[in-house]
Every structure is written in C-alpha cells, then in structure tokens.
Design brief:
By secondary structure, the protein is α+β, with helices and mostly antiparallel strands. It has a domain of about 60 residues. The protein has 5 helices and 3 strands, in the order ααβββααα. A 3-stranded antiparallel beta sheet has the order 1-2-3. The chain is extended.
Length: about 150
C-alpha cells in the first residue's frame, strides 16, 4: 500500500490546521471600550438621541420595505381568503399569510379538521390556482418589478 492510498492521519491534519489558522475553539468576549463597557455589533448612539432616532427610523423603513416590497393582494377564487403575494420568477412565489386568511382557507380548515397542523402544510392548492389565474388575468405581476431589499 502506497502512502497516498492510506487514510489521512486526522490528528496530524487537525494539528497542522491549528498551527496554520490558530485555535478558534474558545469563546471571545467583546473587546472592551472606554469605561470598561463591551462593544455591541450595532451602535446604539446612546449619547446622540437624534442619531439614535434616525437609525431606528431607517431600520424600521428597511424592515417594512423588506417585508412588503412588491407584495400584491390576491383573493382565493375558492374561499375568498386574501393573502399578499410576490412572484419572484417561474416556480418561485412568496405568499404572506395573515391570521384571517389562514382561518378562512377551506383547504387549511379541512386539514385542521382531520387533525393535521396546517402550519406545516406547504401551500393551499386552490390558492396556487388563484395565483396563476391572477397572473394570467394581469392582476398580479408574473415577476415582481419591486427593487430587492437593500436597493434604492
């Protein structure tokens, strides 16, 4: 058996990796800053209330844009549950359910009645048909034109 046919010495390999890259198995404490406090990942701007308010406002705007940009309401033609939908491309559709729609959905109601958790169900086939119909009728963009989060 040649040396290249033998399994690698795992311990030797691990030691060489540690020598090359260092030992990163221990937890690091955040680096202390002035006053002995540790630095968090995001700055809170505790000493500048105007800047803190602006950062909170910008964060909320980003969150709202990320969660709602490009969503359009679609009404299920079967049970009339209304959800927000964004087509991302062929075979890729984001559906944002709300409590009222999930309670109203006849398909989910059948699942719940049979003892199945509807939250673990991938989608409602009747709603999927309604989404395709909305695209065919021009009521829903075939592919969203909304800018992706982070643009703009």
């Amino acid at each position: 058996m040649s040396p290249s046919d033998q399994p690698p010495d795992v311990d030797r390999l691990a030691r060489s990796m540690l020598m090359l890259h260092g030992d990163h198995t221990h937890d690091h404490e955040p680096a202390p800053v002035a006053g002995g406090q540790s630095r968090s990942k995001a700055t809170a701007f505790a000493d500048d209330p105007k800047r803190a308010a602006a950062a909170r406002e910008a964060t909320q705007a980003d969150k709202t844009r990320y969660l709602t940009s490009g969503l359009q309401p679609v009404d299920c033609r079967f049970c009339h549950a209304t959800v927000n939908v964004k087509r991302l491309g062929p075979g890729h559709t984001a559906v944002q359910w709300n409590s009222e729609a999930s309670q109203r959905c006849a398909y989910f109601a059948e699942l719940r009645a049979s003892g199945t958790d509807s939250a673990r169900t991938r989608s409602c086939p009747k709603l999927a048909d309604s989404i395709e119909h909305a695209v065919a009728e021009g009521c829903l963009d075939a592919v969203s034109t909304a800018p992706p989060p982070g643009d703009g």
